[in-house]
Design brief:
By secondary structure, the chain is of the alpha+beta class. 29% of the residues lie in helices and 20% in strands. It has a 5-stranded antiparallel beta sheet, sandwiched between helices. The longest helix has 15 residues. The protein is globular and about 40 Å long.
């Protein structure tokens, strides 16, 4: 199940987002609106949910949340965008990675889901 997270996630939301992959959650993060969509099997599915909610694609980046280690991964097909000078699946800009890490940790970090 994909959820849009606008404030600290609830344990039930975390459990539902983990249903697809079990040990981590695929995310699309809107760095402008400071929200994310998580869950499902593809970053692109999360991205579509955010776009349907009014996000602009240039502000949406793919990431992963690993709740056991409380860490963020920055690799996704939706991150390949030469127009933003990001030519790989990995988010190249360290400042952007840091911004995404802070946002994801504020919304998903330390949520007890088990």
């Amino acid at each position: 199940m994909i959820h849009i997270i606008r404030q600290k996630a609830e344990p039930k939301q975390m459990r539902q987002m983990l249903e697809a992959l079990g040990i981590y959650i695929k995310l699309a993060v809107d760095v402008e609106r400071r929200i994310l969509a998580g869950g499902g099997e593809l970053h692109a599915d999360c991205e579509l949910v955010l776009l349907d909610d009014g996000s602009q694609q240039r502000h949406v980046w793919g990431a992963d949340w690993y709740p056991l280690s409380q860490t963020v991964g920055y690799e996704s097909l939706i991150n390949i965008r030469p127009s933003a000078n990001n030519r790989s699946m990995m988010i190249q800009d360290p400042a952007m990675r840091d911004d995404i890490r802070q946002l994801v940790q504020s919304l998903l970090g330390d949520v007890q889901w088990q």
